[in-house]
Amino acid sequence: MVELLDPRPGQLLLELAAGPGETGFRALPFLQPGGELLSTDVAPEMVEVARRRAAELGLTGVRFAEENAADLSFADAAVDAVLCRFGLMLVPEMGRAAAEISRVLRPGGRAVLAVWASSRLNPWMTAGGKAALELGLTEPPDREAPGPFRLSEPGRLRAVVEATGLTVERVEDVPVAWAASSLDEWWETSKDTSRMLTMLLARLTGEEAGALRARAERYLQEYVADDGTIAVPGLARVVVAAAR
Fold first, then answer.
1. H-type alpha helices, the chain
2. What are the sequence ranges of the domains in the chain?
3. Which tens digits make up the pLDDT trace of 199-244?
4. Which CATH superfamily is domain 2-118+146-174+236-242 in?
C-alpha cells in the first residue's frame, strides 16, 4: 500500500481506521523532511495503542486523533494522501466515508484503500463462521451489513470509490498469507478479532464450543505443516484513486 501511495517529503498523510498504526508508520519515513502523519481511528483504545507504539519506536512527525471516517473533522482539501487498510467496509455509513476521503484530499492527492476479497479465498478468517453455519449455530450474515467481506464482490470497491468523484487509477488483488505457530494460536486470534465468534462462543455450551472449534479446524488442516505451524493463503484487494 505504501509503495502504491508513493508518499513524498513534506506531505500530510491521513491514515483512517489505523488500529495500531503500523501501515502509516511504514509510510512515515517517506514524508520526511517536513511531512506529517495523522494516525486516526474511531476507537480511542486503538488510538492509544498506536500512540504507545510510536513512542516505543521513537517516531516523530506523527499526530494521533479519534476520527469517525464517515464524519471527519478536517477541512476540505486538507491532506495530500489517505491510507485505509481493512477499514472502509466496516464503517456503517460506508459511502459517506468514501465521500469524506474525497472531500479532504487536495487536487492531485492520492488515496490507497485495502479491503478483503472473497470469503472463499480467505479461509483463515472464515473457517469459524462456516463451521457455525453448518452446525446450525448462527444465521447467514447480511452481506450489506458492516463486515470484512462487504466490498468483496468484483467491481464493488471501484464503484464505491468512483461514486465520490475520485479517479480510480488501479485496482490490484494482492495475495497474503496468515501464519501462526499452531492451530491453537489461530483459534485464540480468531476469538480476539471476530466479534461474531466472540458473541457466539459466549452463549454456547462447552460441548457446542468444542464441536465448533473441531469443525473449523478441519477446514484449515491442509495448511498445517508437520511441525504444527500453519500458513493459510488469503487475498486482499487494493484500490489506488486520485482527487481531481
1. 2-5, 22-27, 44-57, 94-104, 123-134, 156-162, 183-193, 195-203, 206-220
2. 2-118+146-174+236-242
3. 999 999 999 999 999 999 999 999 999 999 999 999 999 999 999 9
4. Vaccinia Virus protein VP39 (3.40.50.150)
